[in-house]
């Protein structure tokens, strides 16, 4: 199950689990749309492809809450 990390690793912007706009690699490194575009849709950590993260809504989000651990690393 996806962790649904709450922020962009690069710029720190909030990425709610129930909204679109987050991009992840296969290791769940998480970036906002702007940072994913700036990174040419490639993860700077592993080199993997960044893909749209699916949203988790309603009862699914209630039963399986998103992570609250922030992984802001900063970067360019």
UniProtKB/TrEMBL annotation:
Q: Which Pfam families match?
A: DUF1272
Q: Which InterPro entries match?
A: DUF1272 (IPR010696)
Q: What is this protein called?
A: DUF1272 domain-containing protein
